[in-house]
Amino acid sequence: MIFAKGSRSGRLWMVTLALVLGGLCTAPAAGALEFEIVNESGREDDEVFVTVVANGAYAVPGVTENAPVKLSEIPAGSMTINQLISGRVYISYGAGVEEGVPFDSPTRFDWAEMTVTPVAEDVANLTAVDQFAIGMRLDTLNGSGNVLETVGAANSNTIFSALQEIPGGPQATLRDSNGDILRVLSPLHSTAYPELGDYVRSMAGETITLRTAFFGTPFTTTQYSGTFAADGSIVLSGTTNPAGEAPAQIAIGAGELIEDIYTGANTPNDVEGAIRRDLLSAFSAGFWNGRYGNDALSFCNDPIIDAQGSYCPHGFNQPAFGDARLALSPFPTCEQYAAVINQHSDVYGNPYSDASKKVAVGLDQPINGGEVTKLRLTILPDSGNAQPSSGGNPNCGAAGPAPTAKPVPHKDGDASGRAKAKFRKRSTLAAGGFRLGRVVCPSGCAKVSASAKLGAKTVARGKWRGAASNRALTMKLTKAGRQLLSGKKGEWKLKVKAGATGVDGTTTQLQGQLKLKAASK
Question: What is the mean predicted confidence (pLDDT) over 187-192?
Answer without folding.
Answer: 92
